[in-house]
Amino acid sequence: xxxxxxxxxxxxxxxxxxxxxxxxxxxxxxxxxxxxxxxxxxxxxxxxxxxxxxxxxxxxxxxxxxxxxxxxxxxxxxxxxxxxxxxxxxxxxxxxxxxxxxxxxxxxxxxxxxxxxxxxxxxxxxxxxxxxxxxxxxxxxxxxxxxxxxxxxxxxxxxxxxxxxxxxxxxxxxxxxxxxxxxxxxxxxxxxxxxxxxxxxxxxxxxxxxxxxxxxxxxxxxxxxxxxxxxxxxxxxxxxxxxxxxxxxxxxxxxxxxxxxxxxxxxxxxxxxxxxxxxxxxxxxxxxxxxxxxxxxxxxxxxxxxxxxxxxxxxxxxxxxxxxxxxxxxxxxxxxxxxxxxxxxxxxxxxxxxxxxxxxxxxxxxxxxxxxxxxxxxxxxxxxxxxxxxxxxxxxxxxxxxxxxxxxxxxxxxxxxxxxxxxxxxxxxxxxxxx
Length: 435
Description:
Layout: E1 6-12, H1 18-29, E2 33-39, H2 44-53, E3 76-79, H3 103-113, E4 117-123, H4 133-144, E5 148-155, E6 166-173, H5 205-213, H6 216-219, E7 223-224, E8 233-234, H7 247-259, H8 263-269, H9 281-285, H10 299-308, E9 312-315, E10 318-324, E11 330-336, E12 343-346, E13 357-358, E14 376-380, E15 383-386, H11 389-394, H12 408-415, H13 421-433
Parallel strand pairs: 1-2, 1-3, 3-4, 7-8, 13-14
Antiparallel strand pairs: 4-6, 5-6, 9-12, 10-11, 14-15
Helix pairs in contact: 1-13
């Protein structure tokens, strides 16, 4: 009787262990044993959570300080390597060199340890970063190490979770290439399948103002932000969040929302166009001339009232300029042009409000990211509440046994950067069912 094969793996930039969970689940289906022989993760909250759910795990922190000799031999490398460095690829000659980035650590370990396989995960933007040069560089580096390398952008919606989350997955093998475009897809799942019920709802001034103006049915599926128009947006002035204003002011703010984005204003000011810029009183008067101003004597008084209530800011326009950073590299920044007259601009901010979107239960969640996961809301009974940590875990395909003993803010910060377990499961199944 043959003993089962044991698959040895290392879990780099492990986070909450989503990639590990996917691999372990697939191994059980394939009648394989699996053993993690090395883990690295630098965030303390992630380490504590990882060790709670994977007892007796030793977790190394900064992989840059770990030599290859300290890592045991293994069969497959798993890494959802951080993507922050790639946002600067345009200033690094097409990312022709991977030194100084955390991908270099993956490359180093693969070169030194020569495992049979690897699975890497990253944001979809890696595909187009620096017009594709970044990804081409990464693929060339991996192929130079002797691997058959394939990649695909996969959407979590196709793998049994109600989240529109596209990520790039890169797979390397020594023998034959593994193609990911034909992975079996799951039947779509809606948010209603993962939501809890009967949880405490929010009782705040913001929620009161929102619900005084709209019924719960009217706000389902709506975004709540002072950016861009559209029937699915609720703005701060729609619910008079910052103070009472009249209908003329609301009409003006809705017009300004679109007008400030027109490129002609940048050309007139002699600045590089940006998505929304302050307009002077004269510029505003050229497109907004109400028949009556109610209690206001003139247009300026109407605008200044909106500034006082913080619906508008009175500021100089910004322009894109090249400056040197602390590493003496040229980078582009937007700085105020003090030589140009001040104008009126919306006080915007994606995360300005207590909640940014009310999710539709018979649909799916947008891509969940750490910065705004805590600001998503759902209808529960006769009120609104934020997502629970359990619902967050389900949106990434984590098992019900997985526990996070952190505040929602800290838990969502970690979840927003994790991987969807079921996607990894299908990739590993494809990888090892063909061996």
